[in-house]
Write a structure and sequence with these properties.
Serine Threonine Protein Phosphatase 5, Tetratricopeptide repeat; disordered N terminus
């Protein structure tokens, strides 16, 4: 089988798998239907198989429907009116019919099914002629991505079913939820394997963008940091052993990876820098597709008109920063603010560059992920549904902040040299003055600003709720989750898009989609151990 034939075969394999996922995560074909005896025979075959895990329909559905609405609207960073699902998330009135909730659950389990199928096929089909290290590296890629999906599910739902072999669901489709601590242990097991078997760097240009051991160690540190709060034995404190593990792995990335932050924050989100070293894990989209739910669809959220659209079709949703998010930026934090959110009068030379740039004339809108026209990106076939931006889900700056927080641990504040060094690297890159001491509030605010519009802040609030629920609740209820007008440099809050009900401890776990409960009533049963 020649190289082109293998690519064609892989496309059919993936298409068959994803087509089978159209209803719910329990509907899976037998492995024999999506694999052949003449694939998974070489290292190149394995790399083709794992390459398909970095994008595709499951990720597209999640990115379009849930990435911003759950990560940033529900957390209070952004607001989106005239969208019932987003209004529910903004006002804490979420039901099991919410489209963003359904898409997130369904999308993550589709990703998991794809990973499971790949893992099982590699184990079953790979001959001994393929070096063991290459086989394990391929398995490690799939297990890393599976771990990311389970981390997403664990943060949003807590107790969820752990599924390693989807073929077993054909004979036993009704499965219970598993305890959230077991979900975290499963994630850690996958990531530990990935740490041990992924390379430190990719070996060729064709492999650029694949995860490495540094990606796995960064995500493992983040998982340990979240889990440390869940495993807490007392309110207000986190498990010290898990904090130490977070510190160990994040410190390895900070000190031993050789990776550095890019000089310019705004450059992170430009397509010419898709393969930057700071992107430890990014979705690798094909900008040539115009099929619905197949590409990066984030430009649909563009606040501008046709002049900054990929193909002459303006964005559909006016997603905007909340007034509370606007208030987070200090007067000197303009680099990150402008790269993340547009305010009236902002000028962007990289958008509509052929016509001299673009000046935003609306009140406010999202800038991050809005990359402009085909000409701006030198991608003649890009559409509104297939942005060329390969958006990062884990960045080096995130790991720097995880390291600082793990060092802070259960202390009220710290002036530790390493914590300050890496925390201040993030700030100084943004043109913001360094600090001489950090505490939990400073860290959370820094993460909120640095990672705004990247679907991170809700996970941070959930992690906080594990060990300090009252503080997490107060942050949700204390912020002004409303749009604002902006004229002559003055912002004024407006009315919310719906009646905002007070957040409670229950707000940190999403309802299980109603359709999934109908298909699998065991999801309503008490969770059971997995290990």
């Amino acid at each position: 089988m020649n190289f082109k034939s293998k690519i064609f075969y892989l496309a059919l394999l993936v298409a068959g798998l994803l087509a089978s996922c159209s209803k719910d995560f329990l509907n899976r074909p037998p492995l024999s239907e999506i694999s052949t005896e003449n694939f998974y025979q070489t290292t190149s075959d394995l790399k083709l198989a794992t390459a398909a895990l970095y994008a595709g329909t499951p990720w597209a559905e999640y990115t379009y429907t849930s990435y911003l609405t759950i990560g940033d609207v529900m957390s209070g960073n952004m607001v989106l009116g005239y969208n019932d699902d987003a209004v529910q998330l903004n006002t804490f009135s979420v039901t099991g019919l919410n489209g963003a909730v359904v898409a997130n659950w369904r999308g993550m389990y589709k990703v998991i099914a794809h990973c499971n199928t790949t893992i099982n096929a590699i184990n079953a089909k790979t001959p001994e002629s393929v070096p063991e290290a290459d086989k394990n590296a391929a398995l490690a890629e799939a297990r890393f991505i599976r771990a990311y999906a389970y981390y997403n599910l664990g943060l949003l739902w807590g107790d969820v079913p752990i599924i390693e072999d989807n073929t077993k669901l054909i004979s036993s489709p009704l499965v219970p939820r598993n305890l959230v601590n077991d979900v975290y242990q499963f994630i850690v097991n996958d990531l530990t394997f990935a740490v041990q078997n992924l390379p430190e760097a990719v070996g060729s240009d064709w492999e650029r963008g694949r995860v490495t051991t540094w990606s796995a160690q960064g995500l493992l540190a983040k998982v340990y940091l979240s889990w440390s709060g869940l495993a807490s034995q007392s309110i207000g404190e986190r498990d010290q052993a898990l904090l130490d593990s977070a510190k160990l792995y994040a410190g390895n990335v900070c000190k031993n990876s050789g990776l550095e932050l890019m000089d310019n924050y705004a450059d992170l989100f430009k397509t010419e820098n898709n393969y930057n070293d700071e992107a430890l894990f990014a979705l690798r989209w094909d900008p040539t597709t115009s099929d619905w739910f197949h590409g990066n669809m984030l430009q649909i959220y563009s606040p501008g008109g046709t002049e900054i659209s990929a193909d002459g079709q303006a964005g559909w949703f006016g997603i905007r920063p909340s007034y509370d998010m606007y208030l987070q930026y200090s007067a000197d934090d303009t680099i990150r603010r402008k790269a993340t959110f547009m305010l009236k009068g902002d000028y962007y030379p990289e958008l509509n560059a052929a016509a001299g740039g673009y000046t935003f004339t609306g009140e406010s809108g999202m800038k991050k992920h809005i990359i402009g026209t085909k000409k701006d990106n030198n991608v003649p076939i890009m559409t509104l549904y297939s942005s060329a931006e390969q958006n990062a889900l884990l960045r080096l700056a995130d790991v720097y902040l995880v390291y600082a927080e793990a060092i802070l641990g259960n202390n009220s504040s710290t002036a530790d040299g390493d914590a300050l060094m890496y925390f201040n690297k993030v700030r100084t890159r943004a043109g913001v003055q360094p600090v001489n001491s950090i505490d939990a509030d400073i860290l959370l605010k820094e993460r909120r600003i640095e990672l705004a519009a990247e679907s991170q802040y809700w996970g941070d609030l959930v992690s906080l709720s594990y060990y300090n629920p009252q503080k997490a609740i107060s942050l949700l209820n204390g912020g002004e989750r409303v749009p604002f007008t902006y004229n002559d440099g003055v912002a004024e809050p407006e009315n919310p898009f719906g009646v905002i009900t007070p957040a409670t401890a229950n707000s940190f776990r999403l309802p299980i989609p109603s359709s999934e409960i109908t298909a699998n009533p065991k999801l309503l049963d008490a969770p059971v151990p997995y290990f």
